[in-house]
Design brief:
Number of strands: 22
Largest sheet: 6 strands, antiparallel
Helix content: 10-25%
Order of helices and strands: HEEEEHHEEEEEEEEEEEHHEEEEEEEH
Distance between the termini: 188 Å
Oligomer: single chain
Radius of gyration: 44 Å
Length: 477
């Protein structure tokens, strides 16, 4: 019995051992992976909001003059910044619907106020007309130097660029001044003010000016009327450091003016006849240069309070002296009344051709333009001669002599004359009396070469013997 139990136990152990070995030889089952938690999606960071790019204004308004009362200074300009001061003198100004009318009236030379003309011209701020404002442009947002100063303007007659100066003096710094006719426009030529309103773009750097200022003037050295609408700066080129005087002109190469007296625009005095003794030739003209000769024939002249009184008395036809009337007219220089001088104008400093010949004079009766001739013969060259009534006045129209003392501005090129001479005559082919005070040239036109005084000027040559003197005399009668 005992033996059976032992055998059964051994069999059970063997069976368990075989079962265990069988399980060890079977491949292990791969356990199922533990479930993985789905990660929360990472939020895409929002793109940073870009800083706004500063936009530089394309223009900086100086001022707009619509509805502007020229007799009252506003506190602010159109751009919203302070107007520190304005200065309008030697003028009359009036408000119009969309602009101001400025009538410049510069003072005239008065020997009681000045030693001489040189002293007068050396003090231009005393006698010039002036429009001026100081606007705090440095307070404008992102203020920049600009390429252009834009002035919307029209003239009363046109041609006012010949009578005006532009003047900057930023931050009490250097003075920049030039005649309008010497400025350079965006298109490359000089400005031309017409009777139509227009935007004139002044190229500041080309004109020798900085691209921004807080003090600006328009000055007049001769009478002129303009209609001013608006002024602004255009086309920024470089930032302005408004806190520093040292950088106000950064990036610009400009010539600093020595002063306004250097810009008195081409006034070349021929002579002054107040107190002049017509029976004695002075050695020097008003301009300080030699008078080579004078020639006063067939006239009576005397010094009077108003100047020199010249009574032209051309010789009448006399059959004993001439074959006939045709012969008489053909020898006009023998019988005409003649005032004439030769003045060494070539010796004047910076001598130029000029736009205008200015005669301050009056007639005894008025209408003397119908009896007189103007006659140039520079450097013994061609003769230029025309009846006064056919000369062209500044602004157009013909010259008229009245019985009121006034300045007659003769447009030389329009009248067919060169812009300078050293020999000048006023001749009369019919009786006439005039009171002459002063003769001068003014308004630079171009540089003059004294060795070729007519260089660059193409003018008709009108010799005396080719004139229709019979027609002139008939017209005068």
């Amino acid at each position: 019995m005992k033996k059976k139990v032992i055998i059964l136990l051994a069999a059970l152990v063997l069976a368990l051992t075989i079962a265990a070995c069988g399980r060890n030889n079977e491949p292990e089952a791969t356990p199922a992976p533990a479930p993985t938690a789905t990660p929360a999606p990472t939020p895409t960071p929002a793109a940073p909001t870009p800083e706004p790019v500063p936009v530089t204004p394309s223009t900086f308004m100086w001022n707009d003059y619509a509805g502007r009362d020229p007799n009252a200074r506003p506190e602010f300009s159109t751009g919203g910044v302070n107007i520190w001061w304005d200065n309008w003198y030697g003028m009359r100004a009036a408000a119009a619907d969309d602009h101001v009318q400025i009538q410049f009236r510069p003072g005239r030379f008065d020997p009681e106020d000045y030693d001489d003309l040189a002293d007068f011209y050396a003090r231009p701020t005393s006698w010039m007309s002036n429009w001026g404002e100081a606007v705090n442009m440095w307070a404008l947002d992102d203020v920049h130097f600009c390429r252009y100063l834009v002035i919307r303007v029209r003239g009363g007659q046109g041609g006012e660029e010949n009578a005006l100066l532009l003047h900057f003096q930023p931050n009490d710094g250097p003075l920049f001044a030039a005649r309008f006719s010497d400025l350079v426009t965006r298109e490359g030529g000089p400005p031309q003010i017409t009777t139509s309103a227009q935007d004139i773009y002044i190229d500041l750097e080309a004109s020798g000016f900085p691209g921004m200022t807080n003090r600006m003037h328009i000055r007049a050295f001769d009478e002129a009327t303009i209609h001013l609408y608006q002024i602004h700066f255009s086309d920024p080129v470089a930032p302005v450091d408004a806190t520093s005087n040292e950088t106000i002109h950064a990036g610009f190469t400009v010539a600093e003016s020595a002063g306004l007296e250097t810009l008195v625009p081409g006034v070349f005095p021929w002579n002054n006849f107040i107190g002049r003794d017509p029976n004695a030739k002075p050695d020097f003209s008003t301009g300080g240069v030699n008078i080579w000769w004078d020639n006063w024939a067939n006239l009576r002249a005397e010094a009077v309070d108003e100047g020199t009184r010249i009574e032209f008395r051309p010789a009448a036809f006399n059959a004993d002296d001439y074959d006939d009337l045709e012969d008489y007219y053909a020898h006009a220089m023998n019988w005409m009344g003649n005032w004439g001088e030769a003045v060494n104008m070539w010796a004047l400093d910076n001598i130029h051709y000029c736009r205008y010949l200015v005669l301050r004079m009056r007639g005894a009766l008025g209408g003397e333009e119908n009896n007189l001739l103007l006659h140039f013969q520079p450097e013994d060259g061609p003769i230029f001669v025309a009846r006064f009534a056919d000369l062209v006045a500044r602004g157009g129209g013909n010259v008229v002599i009245t019985d009121e003392m006034e300045e007659i501005h003769i447009d030389l090129a329009a009248s067919g004359f060169p812009g300078m001479t050293n020999r000048m005559h006023i001749r009369a082919f019919a009786p006439a009396t005039v009171y002459l005070q002063e003769i001068r040239f003014e308004g630079f036109a171009s540089a003059l070469n004294p060795d070729a005084p007519l260089a660059g000027i193409t003018q008709p040559n009108k010799p005396m013997d080719a004139l229709d003197m019979a027609g002139f005399v008939a017209a005068a009668n």
